[in-house]
Amino acid sequence: MKKPSDNTAPGRSGWAERHYLALFLAPSLILLLAFAGYITISLIYLSLCSWNVSSPAPVFTGMGNYVSIVRDMSFWKSLGRTCIYLIATVTGEVVTGFITAWLFNRKLRGIRILRTLILIPMAITPVVAGMFWKVMYNTSYGPINYFLSLAGIKGPAWIASGRTAFLSVLVVNIWQWMPFSFLTITAGLASLPTDVYEAARIDGASSMQILFRVTIPMLKQVLLTLVLLRSIEALKAYDLVYIMTSGGPGEATQLLPFYIYTKGFTWFDFGAAAAMSLILLVIANNLFKLFINKTGVKVFYE
Amino acid sequence: MKEKRFLSCGFALLMGVIAIAGCSGQPAKDAPASDTAAQTTAQAEGQSSAPGDSGAESEGPAVSVDSFDWKQFEGEEVVLATYLGTEADYLESLLPEFYDLTGIQVTIQQYPEEQLYQQIQLDTSSHTGNIDCFTMDMMRIAEFAKAGYLAKVEEYLNNPALTDMEWYDKEDILAGPMGAAKYDGELFGIPSTGETSIMFYRKDIFEEKGVEVPKTFEELWDVCERIDDPNGTRAIGLRGLRGSGMNIYTWTQFFRGFGGDFFVDFPKDMTPTVNTLEAVEAVQYYAGLLQQFGPSDVAGYTNLDIQNAQMSGAIAITMDANVFATIIEDENTSSTAGKWGYAMVPGGKGGQWPSIYSHIMCINNYTDAKEAAWLFIEWATSPEITQKRGLATGVPARRSTWESQEFIDQMQYVGNGAYIDVCVEALEKADAGYRPVFENWNEMGDYLGIALQDVISSENTEGAQKALDGAQDQILGMLKDKGYIN
Description:
The complex is a heterodimer.
Chain A: H1 10-18, H2 20-47, E1 49-50, E2 59-60, H3 64-70, H4 73-104, H5 111-118, H6 120-123, H7 126-137, H8 143-150, H9 165-190, H10 194-202, H11 207-218, H12 220-235, H13 239-244, H14 256-266, H15 270-295
Helix pairs in contact in A: 2-15, 3-15, 4-9, 4-12, 12-15, 14-15
Chain B: H1 2-21, H2 35-53, H3 60-63, E1 77-83, H4 86-102, E2 105-111, H5 113-125, E3 133-137, H6 141-146, H7 154-157, H8 165-168, H9 175-180, E4 182-183, E5 186-187, E6 190-191, E7 195-202, H10 203-209, H11 217-227, E8 234-236, H12 247-257, E9 263-265, E10 269-272, H13 277-293, H14 303-312, E11 315-321, H15 324-328, E12 340-343, E13 356-357, E14 359-363, H16 370-380, H17 383-393, H18 399-403, H19 405-411, H20 418-429, H21 441-456, H22 464-481
Parallel strand pairs in B: 1-2, 1-3, 8-11
Antiparallel strand pairs in B: 3-14, 4-5, 6-14, 7-11, 7-12, 7-13, 9-10
């Protein structure tokens, strides 16, 4: 393994050879430190500072931000709402996605066109989707209430009523991301081996039995990964709320990410916003760790 | 009726797409020159560009070159950050004139509202001074002034070496907007627009139902009761969506009108008084009016939704920013153009409270080109350029423009000239302290806005006291945290 250059600078190249692993890793480690490490550490520091319109430069205040967050009812309510949102959207997306994928998983004429059509909502920018649905929900000229009125029903105010606003936003989110579940599950279904189904059929299993005893268990990894991905996304949900309701009416659709945004970028209270982000990060982290440990989902296929 | 509704739905979709293409992304707060405003005023510009061509006219300042040195900062460069829209485009089109006059190269950066504040916040707090001057929401002046980000412009304004006193005529700037550019008694900018709120009403509907233009809140309620058509045009629409610059902007007309105030004695005693009897009364009135006589989803209405409702004939009355007028009177986009009447906003026992709103041009305290930036602001807010900009927007901040024959002629089509009279009266009456200008107003106003929207979106107005008590607690806590009160 001796190179000619060893004669000129033996010590140096010896060091490089011994530490070649570290050297190869260095570029990506430096990038990681610069873009993830630095930002995380700054966030932690910032969350311990008072930095807002009254004190334009960050001043270290220790746990001050956290104390006021604990006392902030809006924070707890927003957090609770985010949890409900997380459970409801992920369930909705995966269940509807699964049903459509399963129904469409057969050889029919025009099925490929239908599949393409189903994917459209996912291809729309969330901001555009939000504006589009705002019009759909409008009570004076929106199509939803128009068709309801044809059937003699007076539709509710949807996003402008405290009772229906949260549900209305939820529906849009499910509508937009159901195609992602559909796509993932369709791919999962296509990759399943056919011999298992043949065996099941020869043994006389009904199609329901095949679905619950064969298909779903074999899709477990796909489904769990899907749940994980969509949960991460749901915890960050912000765009639809921002466009459609601004968190209203009152605080009915104020999810935690939106509250953090309001604190940070509308009220310029960066310290408190940083602290809240950190709390959300810790909660998310532990939630997903728990999920991965309990379900045995393979995040890394090693 | 239903067919019409469905058609207007298609229209609304189209509008949505246009708005998206315009890349605005979010509803603008406080109804300043919005994108729709921009579209409609484009024509006005087309017309006004004709007199602009007669360059002889624009050499007004050139006359005074003898006594005033416009070329003193020749070769400097100035960057202005401002609101995205046609007004900025128009100002940009006048820049060659300014360059010829001063030799200063100006670059205009346009941003949607929230990005604009973020850009300015970033640039000022990092002390980089890349943006030399910028246009600001008057309600944000306090934050930035307190932080030391804004240069005091009084010394430039009163310096004969930097301001051509006679030509500039600072007394001509409307007192309301000028007051809005002040913080703690110091002047931190010059208003570039002067908006106020007026009452818009459908003349045809008023005539048909035989009702008088309301002057008090009781009369307004009465009129709404008589003209409301639950299956057609609803009587009234006011902003419902939460926000210090959204529903609180229009609600304050009622809050102050009922005799309420935000604080015990602003700014000496900052104890909030937002759950008083008057506040509850104002919330109950506002929410009740909308629940009974407004579109069923009015609780989510933004300024843009109000405009759309006006244009599509969904509402007959609103009390909102006068900048709406040129938008709803545009025959190309509005099905109700020509049907609107204009009047002062009704009042209550606390008097009439037309709103005040203004965009203020400020100088970055950390730039090296303060004097050059001042020359630019001086030029842009001068009588002559204000007139040109005013013709395009309909909301100039100078008396001379409001009184000029050209402006009056141009605005004649809006309510047969009623627009001018009402606006001038409202601007004279408007109090710069309409909403309290202090650093944490946005947070305070948002808490109130949440409470207000909460009540509007509920079934009745019984929750008013509870919602306001909640807002009072939150605001009290916030003010204590920030050290305004003990």
